[in-house]
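To: structure desk
From: M.T.
Subject: fold request, one chain
Message: Could you run this one when you get a chance? Sequence is below, nothing fancy, just the single chain.
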Amino acid sequence: MEPVTLRTARLELSPPRDSDVEAIFEACQDELIQRFTTVPSPYEKSHAEGFVAKAAEWWDAGTETTWAVRHDGTLAGMIGLHGLGEGSGELGYWMAPAARGRGLVVEAARAVIDWGFSPEGLGLARIEWRAVVGNPASHRVAQRLGFRYEGRLRSALVNGAGARADGLVAGLLADDDRTPQPWPDPATP
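Reply: Done. Structure tokens follow.
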């Protein structure tokens, strides 16, 4: 599949490129990114170089769509649709520490979701979201995007250091109303 660039009021979402390697490397030193995502830990510069190359391969193969989230010309994070197949995919993202708390991930995710469901994009029927139970910032993002809480998966998520954690799963269908959704307290098993 040919890579696509998406634009919002404040952001450009475009495939990661070699010039992003240093910013990716720096962002992935963040303890929260390493704890709550699958990035390798410890994260080395060679991981960032390999990631940029793999992202291009994923686009070519049509298995994943990965975008660098750029705000004011600076790399703010990464977002993508992973595990594409049979009309569905999983939304994944991380934001660099300096970019958090400004609504950038919600803005980026809305653009990705719109494109993912669009017939001019991937024409998906379902987009799934998963996150570690102990990651309330990601939970709030999914709720704001209108994802429906579907359950708790015991010891199902593994980060880049191999640590297992309980995860939450939520889904969004193409024809769902995307208003913020109430969820149960994730601290309750």
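Reply (cont.): DSSP finds five helices and eight strands in the chain. Let me know if you need anything else for the meeting.
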